[in-house]
Amino acid sequence: MSESNKDTVVVIGKLVLISVIAALLLAITYIPTQAQLERNIMAAQEAILGELVPGAENFDPVEGPANVDGEREILYYRALDGSGNIIGYAFFQQQTGYGGPIMVAGAVDASFSTVLGMDVLRHEETPGLGARITTPAFQNQFDGAPVQQLALRSGGGSIDSITGATVSAQAVVTALNTKINQIKTAEA
Amino acid sequence: MDAFSEFIRGITRDNPILGLVLGLCPALAVTTSVENAIGMSVATAFVLVCSNVFISTLRKQIPSAVRLPIFIIIIATFVSIIRMVMEAYVPSMHAALGIFIPLIVVNCIIIGRAEAYASKNNVFFSFVDALGIAAGFLLVLVLIGGIREILGTGQIVAFGYTLLSLPINPAVTTMIMPPGAFLTIGIIMAVVNYQRAKKRAKGG
Fold first, then answer.
1. Which domain does A36 fall in, by range?
2. Residues of B in contact with A40 (CB under 8 A)
3. Which of A2, A63, A103, B132 could be disulfide-bonded to A122 (CB atoms 3.0-4.6 Å)?
4. B199 HSE (CA, 13 A, CB side)
5. Nearest Cα to B52, choosing from B75, B73, B29, B21?
6. Helix (H, G, I), strand (E, B), or coil: what is residue B119?
7. How many domains in chain A?
8. Same domain? A92 vs A179
9. Three-class secondary structure of residue B2 per DSSP
10. Could you tell me if A13 and A105 lie in one domain?
11. C-alpha distances in Å from residue A66, one per residue of A63, A75, A116, B98, B126
């Protein structure tokens, strides 16, 4: 092996070694922070569920069938009062909007007649147009809205759409309707 | 070369913002409040101290042909560590600083100190240099953040404590918007340069 080849090997070896050390350090940090991150997300979700169903003492997660990895996805939550009666159902649902997926949180009462509330957790809608799904003016319409009329006004419902952002508003309504029907079927 | 003057040099002559004029991007973008300024400075200080010490320790082992890739690997590792820790334990701060945490990787202050100082000096002085530069960065960011916050909101609130409150709220909203950052940093820099020019004229 010539002198310059030897130098190249040494340089490559040092780069590899430093990268391996860096990867190790990152792995050591990743494990505890990821666990804490998941706890943060859980706490944030619980806070949102509590806001949607203010009377609820407890949320009982209803899980779907196990997937290939043996993990169960939480389909929705039964909102229970102090004595364990079901006072409503709360859920998270993802729906494709105009700019990307919209993560919607919602709650419905135990008889599936009234929507208790709606919140948007994540979205990628256009600022100033579709992003107005996060404004109280839009969200408050859902508090106490009858499930029968859960549609945009143009579709014969009671929800005012957002000018220039019908796709975003419709996505939220669709998310709620889809999930409420799913829970109704599951609970029946 | 004594340690104390090396430390002070980072705050005065080699102050990253006012002396070296490096790292203006975070200095402009995140200084909407004192709290954000402190958060950004602490994150930068962590990366700066760790990378300076690491690079200085390895300076005789680092082949000069690939020193920049190695610096970047070391800096990016520490930035990722602080980003993960902040996201997990201070999520609100992480949300407020947003993209500017990962962007510490390309912050000229850190790579600049690695190239200009840590790769040429011993571990102890590199550590002191990093502390000095970090302190200089912190002081200027807090000053900019303080001026913008007090003029924009009428009070300075950091970590739940009201540090300073004006009897009348000036409510100059512009100050907490991007133009306020340019105005503040421009005026501070003008004052500092004026003082420096005066000192130089006196033959100092």
1. 1-52
2. 88, 91
3. A103
4. 8
5. B75
6. coil
7. 2
8. yes
9. coil
10. no
11. 8, 12, 29, 36, 54
Reference B24, options B202, B185, B170, B190; nearest CA is: B185
B69, B80, B89 ranked by CB distance to A36: nearest = B89
Is it the case that residue B204 has pLDDT exceeding 60? no
Give tens-digit pLDDT for A123-146: 888 877 888 888 888 888 888 888
- Tens of pLDDT, residue by residue over B104-131, are 888 888 998 998 888 888 999 999 999 9
Distance of CA B25 to the CA centre of its chain: 10
Q: Could you give the ipTM of this predicted complex?
A: 0.76
pLDDT at A1: 60
CB neighbours (10 Å) of residue B83?
Answer: 20
Name the A residues in 5-34 with CB < 8 Å from any B CB.
7, 10-11, 14-15, 18-19, 22, 25-26, 29-30, 32-34
Distance between CA A33 and CA A20 in Å, rounded?
20
CA dist., res. B117 & res. B48, Å (int): 12
* Tally of residues, chain B: 204
Mutate to test the interface with A, among B51, B54, B73 (most CBs of A within 10 A): B73
Token pair listed for A105: 């949180």
Q: Report how many domains make up chain B.
A: 1
Within this chain, do residues A153 and A99 fall inside the same structural domain, yes or no? yes
- What residue numbers bound the domain in which B142 lies? 3-201
C-alpha of A110 from chain center: 22
Which range (A29-33, A72-76, A103-107, B179-183) has the least confidence? A72-76
Rounded alpha-carbon distances, angstroms, from residue A62 to A44, A178, A180, B144: 18, 17, 14, 51
- Are residues A121 and A85 both part of a single domain? yes
Q: How far apart are CA B161 and CA B182, in angstroms?
A: 27
User: How far apart are alpha carbons A178 and A160 in whole angstroms?
Assistant: 19
